[in-house]
């Protein structure tokens, strides 16, 4: 019997391919593996493998209803020349820590690591389950998921993709990346609201049974490319396993030596993948969850209370400007003892009151995690000091993680070897990065692409193709809507 997936809010189960196709359970729950499989290859052995080979060794344990041929085909299609480095996820040492660069894909953000393979997994899953309807990918984005998903699904037969993003809540480069996306099956929509509004609206559409029937009658079915889809989460586990095995093979750490992992965190999927890697047996000590000024996760780890009833802050790290961290539901499920009733109660409280509190017993199961946050000035100071000391330039999200790690080390004197997940290219947030390095770059006479060129010069790094290709690209998408108009926009696009 292969590994099954359970809804966090009921006892409903699905195979891996069914869970990938559905994205979200009918009861609103997220799919989690019934058990976390153990790695069946030693890190020493994995360290001799390519990224693609490590991906197979990890993903085969989770996606057990995919054949070896199917899974290897998906991996080969995803991790190819779309990435600008052969190793896919290089490690760069600076100031005694390793930055795991997850931004060498087509859209220069870590979302590429999972969204490059998701279309292949989804199309394979559709064939396995004899799906004859067109799959409509419905996604909310805080800036990076949308473009990465569109790049993966554009013009893929049998699919359509609709992306909602907060109109004034992403960087200019992020927005232009989305609005210039080609593809007859693509729609990009700026909503008048924040990311949480977009995400809540998408979840509401998924759970609308009346809309589901209309969709089915018209020959469509929804699925998700957000990290609520287990097909997003599983590929993210791979790069933590890969990073550890590379450090071991290169002699940077000793046999079975533990590492800390620091992750700039918004929707919680990226750090949850590291948690799953640890559950699989990877020698990870602390999982350091780094928040920006929207520090709902910091407060949760500090107090055991999750409270989204607070001011929403627009920061220079917009992909983390989130007050409802969807993937935290999966962790809540696990620390509740895999109790779907308890999890459902807490999620209902969040939806009703914007607040919930976990039990003391659940809090005790969070000892793997350390929560920290960085304010805007700390983020900018870290970008500048790292550049001045080493010449290495990081983006604003990675800088949040680096600043939080500096404070963690000061507080604890923990000298465990540490990997920081570097989640986006600094070119994606050129204005903020350049202003951090020298406030003079914040002057109005510097347009975004002039700043990109200047960043290339001072960092001695070539401008990524993802930025070059949008420099003169025409705007193809002009749709905007209120947060209560999302269903109407979807229906109009689909002709129902």
From TrEMBL:
<feature type="domain" description="Tryptophan synthase beta chain-like PALP">
    <location>
        <begin position="95"/>
        <end position="420"/>
    </location>
</feature>
<dbReference type="GO" id="GO:0009088">
    <property type="term" value="P:threonine biosynthetic process"/>
</dbReference>
<keyword id="KW-0663">Pyridoxal phosphate</keyword>
<feature type="modified residue" description="N6-(pyridoxal phosphate)lysine">
    <location>
        <position position="111"/>
    </location>
</feature>
<dbReference type="GO" id="GO:0005737">
    <property type="term" value="C:cytoplasm"/>
</dbReference>
<dbReference type="InterPro" id="IPR001926">
    <property type="entry name" value="TrpB-like_PALP"/>
</dbReference>
<feature type="domain" description="Threonine synthase N-terminal">
    <location>
        <begin position="5"/>
        <end position="79"/>
    </location>
</feature>
<keyword id="KW-0456">Lyase</keyword>
<dbReference type="InterPro" id="IPR036052">
    <property type="entry name" value="TrpB-like_PALP_sf"/>
</dbReference>
<dbReference type="InterPro" id="IPR037158">
    <property type="entry name" value="Thr_synth_N_sf"/>
</dbReference>
<dbReference type="GO" id="GO:0004795">
    <property type="term" value="F:threonine synthase activity"/>
</dbReference>
<dbReference type="InterPro" id="IPR029144">
    <property type="entry name" value="Thr_synth_N"/>
</dbReference>
<dbReference type="Pfam" id="PF14821">
    <property type="entry name" value="Thr_synth_N"/>
</dbReference>
<protein>
    <recommendedName>
        <fullName>Threonine synthase</fullName>
        <ecNumber>4.2.3.1</ecNumber>
    </recommendedName>
</protein>
<dbReference type="InterPro" id="IPR004450">
    <property type="entry name" value="Thr_synthase-like"/>
</dbReference>
<comment type="similarity">
    <text>Belongs to the threonine synthase family.</text>
</comment>
<dbReference type="Pfam" id="PF00291">
    <property type="entry name" value="PALP"/>
</dbReference>
């Amino acid at each position: 019997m292969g590994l099954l997936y359970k809804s966090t809010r009921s006892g409903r189960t699905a195979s891996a391919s069914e869970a990938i196709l559905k994205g979200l359970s009918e009861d609103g729950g997220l799919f989690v593996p019934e058990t976390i499989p153990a790695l069946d290859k030693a890190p020493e052995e994995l360290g001799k493998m390519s990224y693609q080979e490590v991906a197979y060794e990890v993903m085969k344990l989770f996606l057990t209803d995919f054949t070896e041929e199917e899974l290897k085909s998906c991996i080969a299609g995803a991790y190819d020349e779309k990435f600008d480095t052969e190793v896919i996820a290089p490690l760069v040492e600076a100031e005694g820590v390793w930055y795991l660069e997850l931004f060498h894909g087509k859209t220069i953000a870590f979302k590429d690591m999972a969204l490059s393979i998701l279309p292949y997994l989804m199309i394979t899953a559709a064939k396995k389950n004899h799906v004859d309807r067109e799959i409509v990918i419905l996604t909310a984005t805080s800036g990076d998921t949308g473009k990465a998903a569109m790049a993966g699904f554009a013009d893929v037969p049998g699919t359509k993709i609709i992306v909602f993003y907060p109109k004034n809540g992403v960087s200019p480069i992020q927005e232009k990346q989305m609005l210039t996306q080609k593809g007859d099956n693509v729609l990009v929509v700026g909503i008048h609201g924040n990311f949480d509004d977009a995400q809540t609206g998408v979840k509401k559409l998924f759970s609308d049974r009346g809309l589901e029937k209309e969709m089915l009658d018209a020959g469509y079915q929804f699925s998700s490319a957000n990290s609520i889809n287990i097909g997003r989460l599983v590929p993210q586990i791979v790069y933590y396993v890969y990073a550890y095995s590379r450090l071991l093979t290169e002699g940077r750490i000793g046999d079975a030596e533990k590492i800390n992992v620091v992750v700039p965190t918004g929707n919680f999927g990226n750090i949850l993948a590291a948690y799953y890697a640890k559950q699989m047996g990877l020698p990870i000590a602390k999982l350091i969850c780094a928040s920006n000024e929207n520090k709902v996760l910091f407060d949760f780890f500090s107090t055991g209370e999750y409270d989204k009833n607070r001011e929403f802050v627009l920061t220079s790290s917009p992909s983390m400007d989130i007050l409802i961290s969807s993937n935290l539901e999966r962790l809540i499920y696990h620390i509740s003892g895999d109790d779907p009733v308890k999890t459902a109660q807490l999620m209902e409280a969040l939806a009703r009151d914007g607040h919930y509190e976990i039990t003391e017993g659940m809090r005790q199961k969070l000892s793997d995690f350390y929560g920290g946050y960085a304010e805007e000035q700390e983020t900018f100071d870290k970008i500048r000091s790292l550049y001045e000391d080493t010449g290495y330039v990081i983006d604003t999200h990675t800088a949040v993680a680096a600043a939080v790690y500096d404070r963690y080390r000061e507080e604890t004197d923990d000298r465990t070897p540490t990997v920081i997940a570097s989640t986006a290219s600094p070119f994606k947030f050129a204005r903020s990065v350049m202003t951090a390095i020298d406030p003079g770059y914040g002057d109005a006479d510097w347009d975004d692409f002039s700043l990109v060129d200047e960043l290339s010069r001072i960092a001695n790094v070539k401008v990524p193709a993802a930025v070059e290709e949008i420099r003169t690209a025409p705007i193809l998408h002009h749709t905007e809507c209120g947060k209560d108009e999302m269903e109407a926009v979807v229906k109009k696009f689909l002709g129902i």
